[in-house]
Prior knowledge:
Elements: E1 8-12, H1 17-31, H2 36-54, E2 60-67, E3 73-80, H3 86-92, E4 102-107, E5 112-119, H4 129-140, H5 147-165, H6 172-184, H7 193-250, H8 260-290, E6 299-302, H9 303-314, E7 323-327, E8 334-337, H10 339-355, E9 360-369, E10 372-379, H11 413-423, E11 427-432, E12 438-445
Parallel strand pairs: 7-9
Antiparallel strand pairs: 1-2, 2-3, 3-5, 4-5, 6-8, 9-10, 10-12, 11-12
Amino acid sequence: MTAAEPLIQMRLRVEQDIFAARQLGREVARAVGFEAQDQTRVATALSEAVRVLLAAGRETHVTFTVESHGVPSLQVTMAHSAGGGPARVAEQLQLVGRLVDTMEVDDEGAGTTVRMARRLPLGAPALTPTRMDEIRANLAQHVPGTPLDELAVQNQQLILALDEVRAQRDDLARLNAELEETNRGVMALYHQLSAELEETNRGVVALYAELDEKSVQLRAASEAKSRFLANVSHELRAPVTAIIGLGRLLTDSASDKLTEEQRRQVELIRGSATDLLSLVNGLLDLAKAEAGRIEPNWSEVDLKAMFGQLRGTLRPLATRPEVEFVVEEPAIPVMRSDEVLLAQVLRNLLTNALKFTEAGSVKLSVRPVGPEIAFVVSDTGTGIPPELHERVFEEFYQVPGSKPISGRGTGLGLPYARRLAGILGGGLRVDSVPGDGSTFTLQLPVDAS
């Protein structure tokens, strides 16, 4: 099996097939991990492109594939049996191109071909060969609904989208009224469904263009938050470092002798200041990652040397005889990545595992997974309930009832590790069952750039 093997194919002949294509496009997008909003984007782009191609009265073949090389993406290829006119088709699909990441229109002699692609989200489940086979089996059993069912689904999606931007656009109230009027006349205007669908698709394209603009504003707000965190963290580091230094001077043998109680209180102050400095440094690192101020330095990474360094630097943390700390020799000697960022991710995962493992083992290994490399950190700790697998990657979140065996947790290590994984072009996920430990998998491309 290759990464380019189709998920499913379909043949469209008449305009009524547009509804089936839209339903299948949404179902495929859901199966490969897109969120509801992106599912609608893919379905809308597909139905609008098919409508333009079917306008010539010739059948169209649609193929869905997943490209796993480089940046994983869902690709849709529409081959039309009539050649000529790619410029006209491209002009008609100009707005549709805003709903996907890439769109190409070619005239390959035997017909016009439209190719669209949208990147898979970073947090999407890994599409292993077994998972791909399950998706193909489920799609093969897909039964398309009626045009009325599809119109009802589309109307529901429009209402949800309108609710999100009503406060910013006064004329959305007019669109909502038109939508309700359209719903009341659906049965009487059934013979005009194709024309109504075409008009609705244009409205959806324009609406998502507005949502993209709001997304830009949200990103600006997020950048402002990151700048605030960075500035506050930077300003806090100096006084906290001063507190630690003053505490060290008070307990120095050259200073005036302290009573036992005074020494104990000073040590408490130093310990609290050290914890606060760790939190401040974590906030500063996270703020830099969120603000996009971390640029990877791509180079050839010697994994054997890196694993040896991790084994040496983290060995002092594995002081409990009940816990076996194992860093296996890498089966893959060299890969292209950022050595500093990769080591930081693995160090965060291993440190976290050592903190929460009371007995058993903490292990680091690496293995090839198709065109990618998977770094696996497994432990025999208390484990994480399935419903909290994504929440552990939120800032400051810690699993209820979990207590570190050694050190203190800030709730920033895992969120920072996932952001660094995204910067390196990969993803970070967790598989865990309470009582059986946890396994964190960092999946990266072999040759990143």
